Amino acid sequence: MTASTPPGVAPADHAFTIDGPAGPIEAACDDPEGDALQLPIVAVLCHPLPTEGGTMHNKVVTMAARAFRECGAKTIRFNFRGTGQSAGTFDEGQGEADDLRTVVAYAREKFPGHALWLGGFSFGAYISYKCAHELKPGLLLSIAPPVGRTWNFDDIPHPNCPWIVIQGEDDEIVDAQAVKAWVATLQPQPEFISMPDTSHFFHRKLMDLRGAIKSAVRPWLPDPANG
């Protein structure tokens, strides 16, 4: 089975499947942007809730991936079980965490010597945060983490890595004030970026999101002179 690209979506540099715990996982890997200095980083990104239409082709996920590639990283996006051509059925966050673990294991085997970065949007932000302490990424990006919804954010160990949380102030799905209050309870606190006049899906704000991500991760990029 080969990975598919929906109409109107740019094809990935490398489309493939990974053997996952529920069957094949549909995935896409993209190389750093052509004019970017290639760095030893591979960023794995998680998409929003599959039962509400979330896929690896979501525009927020693809924009975050673009921002990482413009910083010199490779990116891997993938579909959780039961989404797109990935086998299985939705598993309320448990099996999806296993899917992420599988993709990270693939990334580390495929790109030895590369730092692992994790990122996610909405439900994907929950899954990547839930697994971060275990997976030990070099950086975690959480976009509109769904605090206060179905998912339990309590008792999840701190990721112990540079961590960036981005939240739209006019989010109609995730309570922006709940996210802000949650961030205030974390020690150490992640870098919190609040984007005014911004909805859940960053309508007309995707380029602002791209710029915010690039600025926030810049201090954590490896120095090519030392590599």
Provide the residue-averaged pLDDT: 95
What is the overall silhouette? globular
Query: How many domains make up the 3D coordinates?
Result: 1
CA(first)-CA(last) distance = 37 Å
Strand % is: 15-25%
CATH topology: Rossmann fold
InterPro entries: AB_hydrolase_fold, Hydrolase_4
Protein name: Alpha/beta hydrolase
Organism: Noviluteimonas gilva
Keywords: Hydrolase
Structure description:
With 227 residues, the chain is α/β, with parallel strands linked by helices. It has one domain: 3-Layer(aba) Sandwich (Rossmann fold), CATH 3.40.50.1820. The chain has five helices and eight strands. Strands 1-2-4-3-5-6-7-8 form an eight-stranded mixed beta sheet, sandwiched between helices. α1 links the parallel β3 and β4.
Brief descriptors of the model:
Rossmann fold, 227 residues, alpha/beta, 5 helices, 8-stranded mixed β-sheet, globular
Task: Provide a short characterization of the protein structure.
It holds the Pfam family Hydrolase_4. InterPro entries: AB_hydrolase_fold (IPR029058), Hydrolase_4 (IPR022742). With 227 residues, this protein is of the alpha/beta class.
